[in-house]
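Q: Two folds, back to back.
A: First:
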Amino acid sequence: MPAPDRTVPDPVLPGSPVPGFLYGTAWKEQETERLTLLALEAGFRGVDTANQRRHYFEAGVGAAVKKAIAGGVVRREDLFLQTKFTHAGGQDHRLPYDPNADPATQVRQSFASSLEHLQVDSVDSYVLHGPSSRRGLAAADLQVWRTMEELQAAGRTRFLGISNVDLDQIEELWSRAVVPPAFVQNRCYASLGWDRAVRAFCRAKGVVYQGFSLLTANGAELRHPAFLDLAARVGKSPAQVVFRFARQVGMLPLTGTTSVEHMREDLESDRFELSGEDVRLIESIATVR
């Protein structure tokens, strides 16, 4: 169905800041609350989670946020909270909605559950946690997006986003959405040019590209002698170099480190610059002999 005239939300509108780094909370289970609180104390002002108990403990994020606000670590208005709706195919038996309900009802139930978990009245970004199939967009995906648009129109979320998408899927969503995504979040492989095609689309459309698994998906490339020589030359850790690279090519990076020392180091990645030659080397590191 064709979309009417639309406007793309600006992720840097006054009063709704989007930080330059997000703390990712996947795969932390009962450590979620402790680690999220440590991240906020270390200086992170953006937190990414999902209402998908299979990989996330969203209520742990909410408990950490509540403690951080109560303790004066951060004000709610200075914190960027992002969560996701996950189709049943990406869930385990702990569903946050009625599996027999229609997609629109599932979104509303999952969103209400997220607000309860996070102990807030609204979120800053609500993300479709991947289309329901690997090819194209199904009718259920479009129903989900329409319902997410309703939540955004009602002021329950500032921005909408989608994750785990191929170029053809984001192009289709862009053409059919009333409110197009402000964010695309993908796992980012150096061997695939750091998701070059999707990043180019995002850059052309003014969409913020969020990159995750920047370290864990690229172990071989980050052990490449040319990359290690670069890190030694600039006097920074490999992780800092990757995150600085991400920022310079227009990504909003995520880190899920469990080390307080690494949390602080990661945040310091915005305190130096890579040369254009360095950026080009990292862009092509998977092809360097």
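A: Second:
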Amino acid sequence: MTVHSRYAMWALALALVVVAAPSARTQMRYARGQNVAPAFEGWERNPDGTFNMVFGYLNRNYEEEVDIPIGPNNTFDLGGNDRGQPTHFYPRRQRFIFRVVVPKDWDTKRKLAWTLTSGGRTDVAKGWLQPEWELNPDVLSENNGGGVLEEGNQPPVVEGSPAQTVTLPSPATLKISAIDDGLPKPVQRRPTAATATPAAATANPDLNTRRRRVEGLRIRWIQYRGPGTVTFDPANAPAVYGKPVDLTTNVSFSRPGTYLLRAIASDGQLESTHEVRVTVNPGA
């Protein structure tokens, strides 16, 4: 099944849901107090024959960031509770957040389950090697709002600071650098309705160009794990085309503990990550 046919099926399913649930427009939006639901995104093939089970999540809050420590409320049914999942959850839908590697002889019908309990509710996401759910860069780009993947585009290359130890209230200083292949190329903006000629104004628009949110190469920081609140100053670097991006960030912590921070470099279609573990000791 092609990528496009898969999206056609999903679009049809979404249309049926909308028709069957006309009250969706009046659905309540909650700033706080709601749960976080895990989501299975699909699977990938690795060069060594193993597979990646790819997961994300939906934090049903529009503002509240939720923390769920590794343990009975944030667990997998394979190889112990900790399979590299996040413990800090940002609001709304977050896709393709982490990958769990399973062996090359993994049974195609065997399911891998991630369970989250929060806000008084337990949800389970189950992943298996369903052929239609195989992921590739085209699917990642489409789902991340990048539109059809530009031919030849490769993910950015990112590197940065190693693990650090700081003592409260001192911040950690983290440095990140990213380079890219210059793809996708900048979108050629169409004339606006006010300046377009009648012919241009009535021409069929390029829907993929309208969907794509390409801004060039950019970097942003997120908190992946940690027992307290993290403040990034600054949290991101403005997007640029055609040259490397460097970002130096001071990171403050509200309480001692071990934190895992993730820098995400994106070209608007594909992403790469760099993680830094920071040990925060209590002050005098």
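Q: And?
A: Confidence is low (pLDDT under 50) at residues 1-26, 194-212.
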